Amino acid sequence: MAKTIPRPETGLWEQIYVIEIMKGLRTTFGHLFKSLTDPGHFPTTSYPEEIHDLPRDYRARHRLMQRADGSPRCVACYMCSTACPARCINIVAEESPDANIEKRPAKFEIDLLLCVFCGYCVEACPCDAIRMDTKIGVLVGDNRADFVIDKAKLMDWKPADYPADDTQSQKAPGGTLNAQALAELHGGTRAGAPTATGAGHGQGH
Ligand code: SF4
Ligand code: SF4
Prior knowledge:
Layout: H1 12-16, H2 18-37, E1 63-64, H3 79-83, E2 89-95, E3 103-111, H4 120-124, E4 130-131, E5 148-149, H5 151-154, H6 167-170, H7 178-187
């Protein structure tokens, strides 16, 4: 049932407004005085010289995750581009040379000028191949083409820039878990690797 919220009664002084305006100005000048005498009271960031550190779960510019050998985890399934409401993901698939992986992206582009940073692509991906945890929230370019990021740019990230407990990032080349992940990859012990009977069928992620 709808709840009725009564209008507050206004007295003569409120209806004149002058007193209310004075009260508002008192608050404004109070803040001004505080910021002049105690700058730490209202911390500010000197943008753009100083970029505010974004939380890791902020939906920032995308990246493509990498396997231990540096190849993309993406299996070109098109689920992200299908889920994308802005239709800004352009993927061209090709056959993967790895017998355990059917396809890989020959081309993977995102038009950041169309992207609405909803994160649906990340949610839709079945193999954690695309993330938006780069903390890159300031996008700069002087022409439209600069905002179309390709596969190389999406895969250009360093494990050192990601937390030590981010296992998937640390398994990529240069990561703290890369040697172990490579040994698993070459030893055929990764999830989905083919068995002696040839029954294995996975995407190697
Ligand atoms: S964040 Fe949303 S709009 Fe941007 S590429 Fe992903 S699904 Fe599309
Ligand atoms: S949903 Fe994931 S695996 Fe599928 S095409 Fe997109 S990034 Fe690649």
